Amino acid sequence: MASADDNKRKKKQEILPTDPMAEAGRAIFARQIRRMLSHEAGSRTGADIESVHQMRVAIRRMRSLFNLIGAHYRPKTTARYERGLRQTARALGAIRDLDVLILDLQDYQETLPPDDQAVLAQVVAMLDERRSASRVRLNQLFDSKRYARFVRGFQRFAKRPEKGARRLKRREAPHQLRHVLPLLLHERMARVKAYDTVLPAADDNVLHALRVEYKQLRYALEFFQPILGRSAGYFLKQVKEMQEILGRINDIAVFSECLSRLEQMTLEQSAVLEGYISARNNELAVLRGRFYDAWARFNSRASQRQFSDSLLVLR
Questions:
Q1: Contact 89, 60 (CB under 8 A)
Q2: For the chain, which residues make up each domain, given as ranges?
Q3: Omega before 200 cis (within 30°)?
Q4: What is the pTM (predicted TM-score) of this model?
Q5: Gyration radius (Cα) of the chain, Å
Q6: What tens-digit pLDDT sequence spans the chain (315 residues)?
Q7: What CATH number belongs to 176-315?
């Protein structure tokens, strides 16, 4: 039973340290579902490319949350929602990758002489056609009965207490957020820090995998930041810095892959794109230097103490 003090605090914040992990997660899912659906209309039209980005981020957060606390729900209950999130993320991702590439090409275009700008505009037009085709497929998904069933079911899951939650085998089994969360966050941290065994010889594939681990750590901290110590905010700044650097490195790898799939390029188009790729390779060298500087700061005693101190309030 929640105490009177807990009930008063509950009105001020979404989750409490004494909440069962399954119910704390349910509250976070409800918030992220609202975020996801609020950007659906904009994702349909493409009038603002941030809509696709924000909808995709909300979905990524929910997939990350299932990965973090999925053991507190029955697998048969959550599998359908994870599948729906995965399918929607895939359709959004096809558009988002092109959104980012086109913006980057347009920025580069401004640095070129007029003739080369015209040539690069032809390439952008080709990519825009692909983006339009991807948006048609996205809207077909949005209009499908499958998507409607996924959204309705997921909303019910997020609104109904105990729906899909695993039953405790023992009353004393750890299940409250204050008991379970420190272990989960330490595990996320360990998965990031383990990369010191493969740095600095890591290639872009390894850095991409590290970026994913940083993202999982960041989301986990942000989900529960309201009940963590104040130092969690300072530590999150370090995590975000690392993720932004690794994100840009990953973007450049995605750019190269997307452009390699273009067919029937003219000599002029190929030449302009070679210049673009060369410029991005030069940027990669700078980014790698920034990454190792940021990695040293992240692993400093001061930074790690911020992480540890943020968990002390859960005792």
A1: yes
A2: 20-96+127-154, 176-315
A3: yes
A4: 0.91
A5: 22
A6: 445 555 544 444 579 999 999 999 999 999 999 999 999 999 999 999 999 999 999 999 999 999 999 999 999 889 999 999 999 999 999 999 999 999 999 999 999 999 999 999 999 999 999 999 999 999 999 999 999 999 999 999 999 998 889 988 888 889 999 999 999 999 999 999 999 999 988 888 999 999 999 999 999 999 999 999 999 999 999 999 999 999 999 999 999 999 999 988 999 999 999 999 999 999 999 999 999 999 999 999 999 999 999 999 987
A7: 1.40.20.10
